[in-house]
Amino acid sequence: MPSNISTGRDSAKVMNRSDLTRRLVARLKKDEAVVGGIGNTHFDLWAAAQRPQNFYMLGSMGLAVPIALGVAVAQPQRQVFALEGDGSLLMQLGALGTVATVKPKNLVIIVWDNGVFQITGAQPTLTSTSVDLVAVAKGAGLAQSAWATDEAHFEALVGEALDGAGPRLICARTDDQPPAGVTERDAAKIRGRFMDAIALSRRGNETSHRGWA
User: Fold this and answer.
1) Edge-to-edge order in the sheet of strand 54-56
2) Which domains, from first to last, does the chain contain?
3) Each residue of 91-123: pLDDT tens digit?
4) For residue 132, which phi and psi values (nearest 5 degrees)?
């Protein structure tokens, strides 16, 4: 299927979030930063690969995109991915307009949309009724936004994102299966390891920042 095919949420295949996360990580080349949003989004990222360039957001919804945007602006030579759930993104929709305004060429937003707040009891989100997050993103100014129609299309969109200029948004419909693992909940350790990784890979063998943790 062509990677540039246009489709809506209702015609996209429902896929497994853990599987898609593993597919994404397998396509990463080396030093890409990946910011995982709260809950199952970063649990699956942790289970897929405990890369030092991964950041796992604890405790606050909707911050994966703003954090990833900050990294992308600070380090324009580094590809940055933000992984976010539909419920969390709905709480910070303004971030999409900010990304569209700043236009970071190195930022990719991936949204896992299962239509519920899964980790708090599967209460329905607005995407289960009328909200199409790809349409919202395009309306905010992110022209390179698309639904992944199936697993192969998702991988094709990730490949395009790795090889081309952004910002881009990829949205995938996902199921309600439990995550593949659970992240260690040590905020200082998560922050320190991430800061070390992106600082050292940018500047070479300079002094580590573990003292910041």
Assistant:
1) 54-56, 33-36, 80-85, 107-113, 168-173, 145-147
2) 11-207 (3.40.50.970)
3) 999 999 999 999 999 999 999 999 877 677 668
4) -110, 110
Q: Tell me which amino acid residue 84 is.
A: E
In 3D space, the residue among 177, 156, 163, 199 whose CA is nearest the CA of residue 31 turns out to be 199
- How far is the CA of 20 from the CAs of 37, 150, 193, 195, in angstroms? 15, 10, 24, 26
What's the pLDDT tens digit per position in 46-72?
999 889 999 999 988 999 999 999 999
- CA 38 – CA 164 distance, rounded (Å): 28
Other CB atoms within 10 Å distance of the CB of residue 188: 9
List Cα–Cα distances, 24 to 18, 66, 72, in angstroms.
10, 20, 18
Residue 79 CA to residue 87 CA, distance in Å, equals 25
Q: Which of 174, 24, 159, 23 is nearest to 87 (CA)?
A: 174
Distant-in-sequence, close-in-space partners of 159: CB < 8 Å, separation ≥ 6: 3, 27
Q: Are 71 and 79 in contact (CB under 8 A)?
A: no
Largest interatomic CA distance in the chain: 51
- C-alpha span between 130 and 125 (Å, rounded): 10
